Structures
1.
Amino acid sequence: MNTALPSEPCAHPGCGCKVSNAQTFCSDQCREQAAKTDADAECACGHSDCIVEEALRRGEPD
Ligand SMILES: [Zn+2]
Ligand SMILES: [Zn+2]
């Protein structure tokens, strides 16, 4: 039984998601983005937690 909780940051620089293993991407979206030249672009994995992190980081007005 795997009881490890996600505690490592996603390997995508612009992603706020947590993953179970370091140097791991939370999704194929992050893996594909990080392989491109615009790896610093905002994450598009679509995870709710990540979206919250992005919103806070950008400080967009509500
Ligand atoms: Zn993400
Ligand atoms: Zn990610």
2.
Amino acid sequence: MFRKSHLLLSASLLATALTGHLPARARATAAVPTLRYSLAMPAPQTHYFEVKMELGGFPAEYTDVKMPVWAPGSYLVREYAKNVEGFQARTAGGQALAFEKINKNTWRVKHPKQANFQVSYRVYAFELSVRTSFVDADHGYLNGSSVFMYPADNKMLGSTVVVQPAAGWAKVSTALRPAADGAKFTYKAASYDELADSPMEIGNQKVLEFTANGTPHQVAMYGTYQADDAKLAAEMKKVCEEAHRVLGQNPLDHYVFIVHNLERGGGGLEHLYSTTLEVGRTAYGTDAGMKSFLGLVAHEYFHLWNVKRIRPVALGPFNYDQENYTHMLWVSEGMTEYYSKQILQRAGVLSREEYLGKLANAIGEVENTPGNKVQSAAESSFDAWIKYYRPNENAINTQISYYSKGDLIGTWLDLNIAQATQGQKHLDDVFRLLYDTYYKKAGRGFTDQEYQDAVATVAGRRFDDFFQSSVYGTKPIDFATALGYAGLNLTSAPLTTSGTLGATFSNRTGKLLVTSVLRDGAAWNTGLNVNDEILLINGAAPSEETVKSLLNGSVGNEVALQVRRDGLPRDLKIKMLANPDIKFQIQPMPNPTAAQQKVLAKWLGK
Ligand SMILES: [Zn+2]
């Protein structure tokens, strides 16, 4: 009972956090609007969901219904309305109502005041990803924000959702709670935010179950896969319980993993009480595959705190009509990535050596990306909508991922907080403070300044210079000093002494094409273009060996290339330059001081 009332409290706080204020038009009326969705897929092989919305008690003479343009967690305008067709509006008695489409994602339905009316439409769903929707003869999957519309002035209105699975399909897996009347496949959503944030898997999926921290967890497994289910559930439980220890409390009464086992996988999207994961169906069979899967589980599960509840102000209440801008995806995504590895290390899935090896590689990945000198983590976050999610051939030269940079910012802050507090505090304490202060007490997100203040409160000192120069600026992060606090040596050396052209190639269509040209490299300086087709290397047709020599030759060597550009041949001579890439290693110091041992113990455990 304690858990239940605690959860009700959390749910109401969340509602406050996501609500904002109802518009005057909705407040002014005495009638309580009602909303009921029906979702059907009578011919799943044709890839359509059919949606009916029954609206009652809407006060004005017209109601605008909207389809979101994006899905929270995936920062790209995807224009879900592009898949809508057959929009209709009718009275409860079945008479056609006039409607008008007033912009790309809004339909204005004219109706008598307070009347009951209904809207119906089809959604073409043939994109199986965690951010979109899909239905075929085998199963249906939907991301709420790409299928369900909402009444523009009543986003916080609760609704009933009735699902009619296709013939022969027996299961619906969703974090939405069953409706009070217990009717089959009937759910309630406390608000549109909850509906949009509760994906559904519909079909005959296998459902695994486990309890973590006293809370029931379901794992809906779509698709063929090879794994020992009991072992898989036990490993997931271990990761969930370790993730829970970071904050020491959670807002859950249930949680649902939807797992799509596909030919290729490797992504996930977080939701309020659930997540969707895409996994390669053979991943569970290898040690590396299993660790990568558990890393994905840890990442998405940690999101139930970080970003779903501990969030920048811009990320809720969501504006589904447009981009929602924040400078802090390096917190929301980068630090989630940091904790994914921390959680695996704490749970014993990764050894300390493996953890430090991954960290050294992560440092190399960021430091060797030319864009790291151009774009800050804050800019990367803000421009996710037009850059990270829309990379072009020059992205490597001009962008840095807020995932990988944020992961390293997390590392630096964690070590510096432990150092500043003589091993008494670490980054977990910052997350605990943010959860209590902004999610539980204030019911809102935090500003950039409030995040930095929270770090300062925990550490007992400010890191303004660091934030300004290395988070909001592009100054290189001093990892060597930070790792030194924990008695670890960071060493670096050139990755290779070979020369390189400084370009990448692909050979997918039988043509050897230039796919990127790295800033300040030999190819960059000489004017090799992306999309140039390499016809001849030193007078001969390209072979596996000569292509390798372009990337791994001798410094100062001149290579003669004939390329085809815009249909015409062109000769280029390119002198190879040294490969600028650095390889990093992290090793324990031989005789760490007691102070260093304390920081290390706080950071990576005893
Ligand atoms: Zn994430």
